[in-house]
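Morning run. Coffee first, then this:
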Amino acid sequence: MKASVFLAILLVFGTAACTERDQSLYQGKVQNGEPAYKGTGVSAFTAPGWTPGDRNSWEQELKTRAQQGQNEYNRVN
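And here it is:
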């Protein structure tokens, strides 16, 4: 009897420890239907060479970032 009560309590607390809170920062403000090149509307997330809403400048900025900033071979050599 005591063992089954102990196991039931352990099961309740064990499953409660596995829950996770919602980690979204901007709940309700995210517009998933917008293309990525439209931007967020926050100037802190805007790169200097990129114009929000311009797809060509967005693609060029991605190419530049991939070649210069995120290419480990170029960074090391």
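The chain has a mean pLDDT of 78. Good start to the day.
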